[in-house]
Structure formats: structure tokens, C-alpha cells
Amino acid sequence: MLLNYLCSNFLEESAFAETCGVSLNELCCLMDRRVFPAPSYVYESNGRSVSFVSDFQEDATYRFHLRGYKAWIDAISRFELDTEEHARCYFFNRYEIAKQTFLASEHGRKLAEVAPDIPEQFNSGHADMTWENFLKGVYGVCTRDGQPESVFLKQAGVMFIEELTSAGPGSLATPELQLLAKAVTLLDSVESEFAPHEALHASRQRCIVDVQSKFLDKAAA
Measured between alpha carbons, how far is 180 from 143 in angstroms, rounded to an integer? Predict the structure, then answer.
């Protein structure tokens, strides 16, 4: 159920602001100044509640922010991210460290060997798109915590998995299947479960569930 999912992973805007120790007006100002993401979900309620006390009808709009974005609010205060330039620089400092750490790891190096064009795609245009999606609340939808490190790992996981599986089942040798399995595990660790109505159309289905059934389960059989 959508509301169960939203209430488990997100906070309605007023509750989020209270948790973060800011007013609703201050939160709106941070979004207007493009230093904090927009709500990841906007829920239009046209509902009715019936109990022995009352029969209540409500028309309202609820905005949901990822619970993990409290860490971004804390960073705004701690590091004085008072302009978009400062916020973007801080975001990409962390993002770049995550990228370099991953590509220097054994798993990252091996993935880059079999898909050498992927690292080159993390260019300035990709950075612009990433920042705009961050501000739109996209990574509150598709990652567990919305943090720059998770954003990079989600992007890299999807890109490498799609490249490795592009030729279809049966196209990979055992070493490549082992790399693929690790990439799927990595993506699974940072990617959200997605809302019930999104799950079948999201990258989790395409890059984790389908890959496990079409590539990895068969390889293990």
C-alpha cells in the first residue's frame, strides 16, 4: 500500500521540518535557493474517514521528504551551504570521492576493464543532470538515503549492469558473471525498494530482479 510505503520511508513535510529543527518557511527557502531537494513524493488526498465519532472528508496535498535527507539539512547548517554553488560543490566533493574510491577498488577496476566506456560517461553533462535530479527529489525516490555516495553507486551500478547484460543471457563467461553478481549486490545495497506502483517499472526490477532470474540464477543452476 502506497501510504504504508511513504510513511515508512519518508516524512510528511511539516514532520520532516520539525525533525530537522527548522520551520516550514525555512525549509521552503532552502528549496527555493536550490540547496535542498524538492519533495520526492507529492500526495493528493481526496479521502474520507468514517468512525463512530465522525464522518470526515478531506482534500489536501501532502509532501513527503526522504528521512535520510535530515543528514543533508545538518550538512547545510554545519558547512554553511548557503548558496547553490556551495551546496553543489559539497555534493560533488563527496560524489567524486565515492567515484574514485569505487574505481580504485578491485571490483571497480575489473568492471572498468570489461566496460571501459562507462567511467568516461561521468562527465560535466552527467554532473549537471545529476545535480538537477538531486534538486528535483529524484534520488529520494531511487536511493535509500539520498546521499551523494549512494547516488554515485546507484548510477554506476545501473550503468555497469546494463552494459554487462546488453548481449542477453548466455553471453557472459564465469568471471563476468561473478562481476555482475557483485554489481547487483552493490546496487541492491543502495537502491530503494520503490513504491508499490513503481516497482515493476523501476531500475530495481530491471537491474536486480530480472538480472538475478535471467543471468545469475541460471548460472548457479
Answer: 20
